[in-house]
Amino acid sequence: MALIVHKYGGTSMGSTERIKNVAKRVAKWYDAGHQVVVVPSAMSGETNRLIGLAKEIMAQPDPRELDMIASTGEQVSVGLLAMALLALGKPAVSYAGWQVGIKTDSSFTKARIQSIDDTRIRGDLDEGKIVIVTGFQGVDDEDNIATLGRGGSDTSAVAIAAALKADECLIYTDVDGVYTTDPRVVEDARRMSKITFEEMLEMASLGSKVLQIRSVEFAGNYRVPTRVLSSLTDPLMPLEEEANSGTLISFEEDTNMEQAVISGIAFTRDEAKITVLGVPDRPGVAYHILGPVAEANIEVDMIIQNQSVQGVTDFTFTVSRGEYQKAMGVLEGVKGEIGASSIVGDAKVSKISVVGVGMRSHVGVASKMFQTLADEGINILMISTSEIKISVLIDEKYMELAVRALHKAFELDKE
Amino acid sequence: MALIVHKYGGTSMGSTERIKNVAKRVAKWYDAGHQVVVVPSAMSGETNRLIGLAKEIMAQPDPRELDMIASTGEQVSVGLLAMALLALGKPAVSYAGWQVGIKTDSSFTKARIQSIDDTRIRGDLDEGKIVIVTGFQGVDDEDNIATLGRGGSDTSAVAIAAALKADECLIYTDVDGVYTTDPRVVEDARRMSKITFEEMLEMASLGSKVLQIRSVEFAGNYRVPTRVLSSLTDPLMPLEEEANSGTLISFEEDTNMEQAVISGIAFTRDEAKITVLGVPDRPGVAYHILGPVAEANIEVDMIIQNQSVQGVTDFTFTVSRGEYQKAMGVLEGVKGEIGASSIVGDAKVSKISVVGVGMRSHVGVASKMFQTLADEGINILMISTSEIKISVLIDEKYMELAVRALHKAFELDKE
């Protein structure tokens, strides 16, 4: 007997028929003797419908009130799924996050889980019940509902799995695993049966979109074995087969496996680049530029500071395209204060990264990447590197071309 | 400065445009210096949509899970209304029932409010905020969400008004007050500017449908001055005029007013009558018949036991038409046990009542009622009386005719 957490996305919960299929799948695991906790998302379209209503009333919805509204989609889902299981004769009970002690901070619409009290869930599991818990939400110290932001149900599932010390967290989604790159861009992209936590973190943060990045961080911090697998298969397929499908995010050093140098190509299409020109190069300049940006709750990704020439430097960073205008506005406001000569930007850029733990012990990955792009006539606008990834910023119109060329150059289409 | 509770029905909350109108109305009261608590219903159609989803999954939805789902409609409403007020620059905050200590019993889908902790609401009011609270719901001792059943938001509003010792509870609805009878049946039905609590109780319980009966009981028990008024008027109409519109449910002995003998004609169309024939007339017979019916959660209304003849009696009672088949089934199951010869029923009957506190000191109301019906050739199937009402059961096909004739006979069209 194992303790398993299942997470189902909005598409899997998209209609009452599909919810019945989810129930059949959950029942299969339960009947095999496992303890099962399920974290379903809102029915597809529902969160958008709710946010749409809010925006009809307030163009910039108040975050606390928006969370009050947006959190209801998951509450409906848990109730429906519990009923679908009860209709199959399985004991099931649903809970909203606040009912099972999921505590968050008060950053409405982008809250972080702080703690989970597992008492109630564990009690129900010990009584033989299937427990269904709302994803995406918890409550702060004053019992205000706070949501975790888009994709937050992944994080909820992994956090609950961590709190319960679950044997595995299964993230059922509409893709059947993590690919070497997006199959919509590269036809012969290949599914990986295993990926390390660190690689997954880079793949997720760089826009592979299979899992919310915070869920991967959670999985890493608490060493929760997490598997991404398809919810589109027959719910009654043999359990053994299902249990080994998809992609496992692994924490074990796998010495047997001949580690590929590069495991995947990740990309983010909607990036924007901002350059602050002619800044006096003195201590604290990065803080004075990025401080106000961070205060405006804008996430900054790549950061480059040029070599100083005659005490003056340029400072370049990227933000997601949706926050470009806001970031430009913030910087215009503090331009005088930081003593910059001007601020320029480009909102039509994309980021591409090659990711792989094997990179650590192999030289030449960077040069191969740059050469491949040069062969295609693609100009590199920015470069940033880490132990297991190299990212470049390029004009967005070359994005697909670059991904396909790199996927081929690193032979990711071959086992 | 007064403390006022507003309640808005689903029609008033039916679209984001209408919600903005509700906000304007609430803001008007707030700007006039009043403390305002608002209890909005779910947007019209929303509760039905949610129950429809549940029924697609489970024909007889599990009550606890149904409440989990159905309660979300109000949660969306409070968030939207709070935003609409914030958009007008008014400080507003929304709460679900559980966040402000609305405690109920565990009778899911038909729970009763047991207590309300006013600390949080009062704190916000004292800080100058408008407080929006979900109607229709609370939580039981184990923090399970429980709803109060259809129309429960009226009860929530009155209960919150009672807990806060509010000066008045204003129930905004799509009718402009309580009428002498249903204006759709009798064209010259007249709006009453005042009605006693007892009369309102009879009018509500007898199907006038303006207010949920439990809300009237609450208003009576806690002496909450409650006013039914229209939400369809211009939200910016003068506050003084609005404050005196509609119908006030009054608790004062009004000696100045020449009390009309009869204040209104109430009716319920969808009744059913069940007769248990040939029951041995011994102690406990009523209990043995009605016990199983009550256990099946079926509400019984009128009850008559015939004069016993040779130790055998007949026992007749009414239930709402929707529960007729269920009640017949229950009785067939215990027929042998109670020793009845047979059980017969009629599901095409309606109940009509004349209501008025003036009846107490006036004789002849009953005879006038019976004579009026006889003049129209309408046969009376059952009679039941109380201090302030006389009810008769008749064939449903005569219902409109009977209501019109009685309205005229008691001169309710005249001031």
Automatic annotation (TrEMBL), chains A, B:
Residues 274-352, 354-415 form the ACT domain. Substrate binds at residues 47, 74. InterPro entries: AceGlu_kinase-like_sf, ACT-like_dom_sf, ACT_Aspartokinase, ACT_dom, AKii-LysC-BS, Asp/Glu/Uridylate_kinase, Asp_kin_monofn, Asp_kinase. It catalyses: L-aspartate + ATP = 4-phospho-L-aspartate + ADP. GO terms for biological process: homoserine biosynthetic process; lysine biosynthetic process via diaminopimelate; threonine biosynthetic process. One of its GO terms (cellular component) is cytosol. ATP binds at residues 7-10, 173-174, 179, 184, 209-210. Transmembrane segments: none annotated. Its EC number is 2.7.2.4. Pfam families: AA_kinase (PF00696), ACT (PF01842), ACT_9 (PF22468). The keyword Nucleus does not apply. Pathway: Amino-acid biosynthesis; L-methionine biosynthesis via de novo pathway; L-homoserine from L-aspartate: step 1/3; Amino-acid biosynthesis; L-lysine biosynthesis via DAP pathway; (S)-tetrahydrodipicolinate from L-aspartate: step 1/4; Amino-acid biosynthesis; L-threonine biosynthesis; L-threonine from L-aspartate: step 1/5. Keywords: Amino-acid biosynthesis, ATP-binding, Kinase, Lysine biosynthesis, Nucleotide-binding, Transferase. One of its GO terms (molecular function) is aspartate kinase activity. Belongs to the aspartokinase family. PANTHER family: ASPARTATE KINASE, ASPARTOKINASE. This is Aspartokinase.
